[in-house]
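FORM 7B: Structural annotation worksheet

SECTION A. Query
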Amino acid sequence: MDIEIDITNTQLETQRLILRPWKESDLCDFFEYASVDGVGEMAGWKHHESVEVSREILQSFMADKNVFAIVYKENSKVIGSLGLHTSWANGDMNYNHLKLKEIGYVLSKSYWGQGLMPEAVNGALRFCFDTVGLDAVTIGHFAYNNQSRRVIEKCGFEFVKQCEYHVKQLQKDVIDMQYIMSRDRWNSYRIAESRS
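SECTION B. Predicted structure
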């Protein structure tokens, strides 16, 4: 079951990152990474061809109150986003009785390969389970997106299924790999991590 999460007054902190609500002053940083060919396409949207496109989407992030700006502490730049969205599992009778959200994310190409996205996702999972009280969190990636697959595996999600669907913004059909993290799995994963 979908529940509403309003992040307006929420700030999450990890070792290298701050996840916080978007501000109008983030526009330049947002356009800088969202305009790079290949960044948005990995997440299902076309890279931004103008700052006006970025401005419009930034306004929707602020209005919807469910997408964090990911800020790199070292330089205070916004380097990506992490949203808490309606989950694919709401339509699955095995999971639709659970309080659920789906994590979706994107990271500036300049920061790929540094372990930042697993750090952000783990921060968001802590918030979803410990603060919001969700029963489970889902996540997914396109079959060809190996970077995202590695993030999801590092964070300990359980693979559930794959499905095909049409991505309107990219005008193509994709195979989507879908995963879930239950509260019990998250607690077990945290215990195992603390012992290693």
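SECTION C. Observations
The first strand starts at residue 12 and ends at 13. The beta strands are 12-13, 17-21, 67-72, 77-85, 100-107, 136-142, 158-167, 172-182.

SECTION D. Sign-off
Analyst initials: ____
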